[in-house]
Amino acid sequence: EIVLTQSPGTLSLSPGERATLSCRASQTVSNSYFAWYQQKFGQAPRLLIYGASRRATGIPDRFSGSGSGTDFTLTISRLEPEDFAVYYCQQYTSSLLTFGGGTKVEIK
Amino acid sequence: EVQLVESGGGLVQPGGSLRLSCAASGFTFSSYWMHWVRQAPGEGLVWVSRINSDGSTTHYADSVQGRFTISRDNAKNTLYLQMNSLRAEDRAVYYCATGNSGYFQYWGQGTLVTVSS
């Protein structure tokens, strides 16, 4: 099983600031089979990024994904009020899919 | 519009069984892998199981292997999760989800399973 470790656990920022979220895999994630999700309280997750860097349909361009191998990053260039939420990374390179533990982006 | 609607959650005693369903519409159900993902209250997302388009291939997380069974009925556009030998730690909201490859473009609203005596 590929273990995904997200950091930091909580990110305290102000609207307009840049957010950088990290996710490290215990093994190489081949073919960039890597995704990011946003989840707000009481809602199902929403796909943001797949293929490590491809934005899902309807996702604003302030969200970007990068990385390969074992280190991946989600960047929110300028935080909007609606971006304060929990973010999860996910790998789908192995038959047993796994998620990271999540990063909460909260208002400072 | 793609819709995934879970049902079948509820309160069950430890050691008991429950079957979840997920009714799909708005896409060609029989062409997609389908998944179950769960989330314990206040915790993160955990992938549970997946099944390929014709039901011939299944995978399970270690935590549910041997206790849960995923299946599908393509004629009814419905996904199932049979959960046996339920434990307190199985308490969670269970989501069905799907998408291309192994990422999840579409999610249901979830159904809550509570395991308690």
Number of distinct beta strands of chain B: 11
- Chains forming the largest contact: A-B, 24 and 22 residues
Q: Radius of gyration of chain A over alpha carbons?
A: 13 Å
Biggest sheet of chain A, in brief? 7 strands, mixed
Report on the biggest sheet of chain B.
Answer: 7 strands, mixed
Encode the helix/strand succession of chain B as letters: EEEEEEEEEEE
Q: What is the H/E string of chain A? A: EEEEEEEEEE
Number of helices of chain A: 0
Describe the 3D structure.
The complex is a heterodimer of chains A (108) and B (117). Chain A is 0% helix and 55% strand. Chain A is mainly β. In chain A, the strands form two sheets. In chain A, strands 2, 4, 5, 6, 8, 9 and 10 form a seven-stranded mixed sheet that branches. Chain A has a three-stranded antiparallel sheet with strand order 1-3-7, with no helix packed on it. Chain A is globular, with a radius of gyration of 13 Å. The N and C termini of chain A lie far apart (35 Å). The model of chain A has no long low-confidence stretch (mean pLDDT 96). Chain B is mainly beta. Chain B is built from no helices and eleven strands. Chain B has strands at 3-7, 10-12, 18-25, 34-39, 45-51, 58-60, 68-73, 78-83, 92-98, 106-107, 111-115. In chain B, β5 and β6 form a beta hairpin. Chain B is globular. The model of chain B has no long low-confidence stretch (mean pLDDT 96). Classes of the chains: A mainly beta (108), B mainly beta (117). The interface between A and B is medium-sized, with 24 and 22 residues.
